[in-house]
Amino acid sequence: MSDQSPLTPGGEPYRWPRGPAYQTAPRPEAPLPRLPRIHVILFLATVLTTLVAGAMQQGINPLATPWLIYKGIPFSFTLLLILFCHEMGHYLASRWHHLDVTLPYFIPAPPIPFIIGTLGAYIRIRSPIQDKRALMDVGASGPLVGLVVTIPILALGLEFSEVRLIPPGLEEPGGFMLGECLLFKLISWLVVGDLPKNYHIFLHPMAFAGWLGLFVTNLNLIPIGQLDGGHVSYALFGDRSRVIAKIFYGFLLICGLLGWVGWLVWALLLYFMGFFHPQPLHDWLPLDRPRQWIGAITIVVFILTFTPVPMQSF
Q: Which terminus of the chain has fewer Cβ atoms in its 10 Å neighbourhood, N or C?
């Protein structure tokens, strides 16, 4: 019996300072994905629905004045850019680890009642994930790449946003206020500064897309099931991630009962999706130190982007 180290995606052996080395079977190169017609159709449909949503946010009736739909471009372009970069982070990490993965599927949604015109995007990984290192890379890459794109979009959008005085009791009926996570507060303070009492920021469409980017990042980093946070949690904690998933599921239920009802909807979806994570093929292979740091960074990002009450109407 021979003892040899497993190969990294680049072909180099994994090595540890002490202890035995092990060998895993070489991973075959996954085929390059084609661009099926369904990807193009879904993307074009999502472009249309987000354009309409962005125009409606500007007070435009797309049925009465369809030629003004172009006013939805700032929102549509920036939101789709954030979603695209998030999914391409997953895609490139999956390709690095020779996984059979699809290109992103965008999900269009009617602008009424879905005011943003989309339910997001996703990729499908059709081959088993080999080990915790690949699991960490695939899980963390999407949120981190998406966040890198979201932050400058949000900052630029805040530059274009307006600060207005709204005396208490004079809010426009049918409007809604967005919750501010710690990262949003920090970026807003750096760009806009301290707001006087009763002054509020009216977000430019780019800023709203940036806010959504932070929100989507946080949703995906919830450490449950097949969410990005579920991948990261299992890579870091192994079977203990099952306990973490139960704790956070209860936390979502409490937030939904005491704060934003949307958390209950999300908890229901997660219940049907399953909130335990399957084992990778080579579960014994430990995380290296750099990937442990990446996992720690994603935990910090989750804390900085969490909002107990993301939105409320008045």
A: N
- Output DSSP code: residue 69: G
Give how far the C-alpha of residue 199 lies from the chain's centroid of Cα atoms, to the nearest Å: 30
- The sign of the CA dihedral 292, 295, 299, 304 is positive
* Helix orientation angle between 228-237 and 289-305, rounded to the nearest 10 degrees: 140
Domain range annotation of the chain: 34-127, 137-314
Q: Quick check: 89 and 64 in contact, CB under 8 A? A: no
User: Which pair of structure tokens corresponds to residue 230?
Assistant: 């579920």
**Biggest alpha carbon distance in the chain?**
78
Which is it for strands 118-122 and 162-165: parallel, antiparallel or unpaired? unpaired
- CA dist 76 and 46 (Å) reads 9
Q: What angle do CA 300, 306, 310 make, to 5 degrees?
A: 165
* Partner residues linked to 125 by β-bridges: 101
Q: Could you tell me how many residues make up the chain?
A: 314
Q: What is the DSSP letter of 98?
A: T
The CA distance from 4 to 129, in Å, is 21
Write down the pTM of the prediction: 0.87
Region label for 193, one of left (φ > 0), alpha (ψ between -120 and 50) or beta (otherwise): left
